[in-house]
Each structure stands twice: as C-alpha cells, then as structure tokens.
Design brief:
Blueprint: E1 6-12, E2 16-22, E3 28-35, H1 44-62, E4 69-76, H2 82-93, E5 101-105, H3 106-115, E6 120-125, E7 129-134, E8 140-144, H4 156-174, H5 179-188, H6 193-202, H7 205-209, H8 212-220, H9 224-247, E9 256-260, H10 262-265, H11 268-279, E10 286-289, H12 294-305
Parallel strand pairs: 1-4, 4-5, 6-9, 9-10
Antiparallel strand pairs: 1-2, 2-3, 6-7, 7-8
Helix pairs in contact: 1-2, 3-12, 4-9, 8-9, 9-11
Length: 313
C-alpha cells in the first residue's frame, strides 16, 4: 500500500485509544486499539510510548508508509488547559509525522464524528466525563473534563469512587458491610473492607472505573445505595448539557444531543434520564448515542485542517 495517501485520526481516552487511517474516499486503510493517551493520568513518557506503539502497529499491519500520511488529528482526554495542550503537541512532534498535526480534546472529535461541524451538543461519560457543544454561529463551549481529582462527575470513575465512599461510610457507622460490597468483592476477589482500601490506593483510574458496572447492576436490582449514586450521576450529566445550551443560547435550535462513553451508552436508564431532564429546558434537542467511532471525527478534522475534501464520511 506504499504510495497510497491517507489521513490518521486518533481518539484517545482515559482507558484506551483508537487509531483510524482513511483515504480521502473514506476507505479504511487501518484500525488499531492501543493504550491511554491521557496526560492527566499518565506520564509524558508513557503517553509518547503508547502513541508510538499504536502508530507502529498501524504501519506494520497495513503496509502503509508514514511518508504518505497527509494529516493527523489526535483528540485525547486530558487536553483541558493550555499547558496540557502544549504538552501533548510536544509529544506528537516526537513522532515525526511528515504532515501537519492537530491536537484537540476528545470531546471535539466525538462531536465532529456525528455533526461534522454542524450545531450539536455532546456528553461523554466513560472513565471521565466532559460536555462540548457548537451552535449555529460556530461558537463552541466546553464544560467539565477537569479530571478525576476535581471533576469527572457522572463518569465511571466518579460512580465507582462514590460507591466505595458510601460503603466505607456505612461500615464505619454500623460495623456491617452493605450489600453492594458483596458485588465488588466478587469482582475483585476480596472479602474485607481493608482489602477494598488497599485496592483503591494500589490501582489506577481505569481499574477503579471498572467497578461502575457493579453499581449499575446493583441499581438495576433496586439497591438504594446504588440508586442514590445513579440519580446523582444523571443530575450531574444533565446539568452539564443544560449549561452548554444556556451558554451558547441554543434553546430554539433543533440539534442532536450526542451520548458517548461506556458509562452512558451501556446504561439505557442513564441516557433516558438525562434526556428527560434536558428536554424539560431544551425540548427541540434529540438525543442518541454516537453513531460512529469518535476516531472518524479526528479523521474529519485532520482533513479539514489540510484542506482535503473527504468523500464517504
């Protein structure tokens, strides 16, 4: 496939990353899954190694030449400040792409995958959470996405952390282990409260976030502790979407509210509850899960930056 021109789009999340290489006609030339590119939860050296690994995997599997790459866009979690943007740009430079590169937040590529620059709002709730929107005049707004230490409300990590906090508080107050603790025990292979605390401080953000599935299952089985957590998550995510609409004055705009991230898209109740709350103020918005991978949005933005017309995406 040497000599075939292509664009690279990378959607980098807090848990893993996805690279898509496409020709200008929309033909997929390569697709790879790699590790996290989030500089908030990984060292610069780790992010560089992870990006290098996924690019090298693509080149090896596809037979494409790096010299034929016409543009690259990396949309990654963790690009939330000017400092982090500069940091990731410096990382990308070390990969020595022969073309222009663009680094943006992962929310921007996800919305672009669905709307290609048209008005719309997006909520991501995966390992972390963020909201992003663009209105009919092209103004953009971002809310949340401040990381697991001070934000990420309604995300899988946040849900897991809340569950652990509630379990520890309930145990301190009563000396009894709440029902939800048994579910987490089954997942982690533990039996004691002290072991849960050890898990938290010995694990990374992605490992803790995986416990959110246990909370969702407990909620579906009418566990009152899980119900409080899930309703709070829905309220936080709804507030993010409503804030986007208010700040961009989108009340009278018909536009999609796009859901992305496993915490949202794999929990139908959460999507329905957020939709219900948002529609109380923005009745013209229609909600749906992201219909294609966010890496397609990264390809679209790479093409746009380089003045390349894409067909078939």
């Amino acid at each position: 496939m040497i000599g075939l021109k292509y664009l690279i789009g990378i959607d980098g999340g807090g848990t893993n990353s996805r690279l898509l290489a496409s020709g200008s006609n929309g033909e997929v030339l390569g697709y790879c899954v790699g590790k996290s590119t989030n500089v908030e939860s990984n060292s610069v050296e780790c992010v560089l190694a992870n990006l290098k690994e996924i690019v090298e995997q693509f080149l090896a599997e596809s037979g494409c030449s790096l010299q034929d790459c016409q543009g690259v866009c990396l949309g990654t979690a963790g690009v939330d400040t000017e400092k982090s943007l500069l940091e990731v740009n410096e990382i990308v430079k070390q990969l020595h792409f022969p073309c222009r590169t663009l680094v943006v937040n992962d929310a921007e590529v996800a919305l672009a995958a669905e709307t290609k620059g048209e008005p719309g709002a997006l909520l991501i709730s995966g390992t972390g959470s963020i909201g992003y929107a663009i209105n009919r005049t092209g103004e953009t707004c971002r809310v949340g996405g401040y990381g697991y230490l001070v934000g990420d409300e309604g995300s899988a990590y946040w849900v897991s952390r809340k569950a652990i906090q509630y379990i520890l508080r309930a145990f301190d107050q009563t000396g009894r282990k709440p029902e939800m603790f048994a579910r987490i025990c089954d997942v982690l292979g533990i039996r004691e409260i002290d072991q849960l605390v050890d898990f938290v401080y010995q694990s990374n953000k992605a490992e803790v976030a995986k416990l959110a599935l246990s909370v969702v299952q407990a909620f579906e089985d009418d566990d009152p502790m899980a119900e409080r957590i899930m309703k709070s998550a829905a309220a936080h995510l709804s507030t993010m979407a409503i804030s986007l609409g208010r700040r961009l004055k989108m009340k009278d705009e018909r536009c999609p509210l796009v859901f992305s991230g496993s915490m949202l898209t794999r929990t139908p109740w959460l999507m329905d509850e957020v939709t219900r709350e948002v529609n109380c103020e923005f009745p013209l918005w229609t909600s749906a899960p992201l219909s294609r991978g966010a890496e397609w949005g990264a390809v679209y933005l790479a093409a746009k930056q380089n003045g390349i017309r894409m067909e078939g995406i």
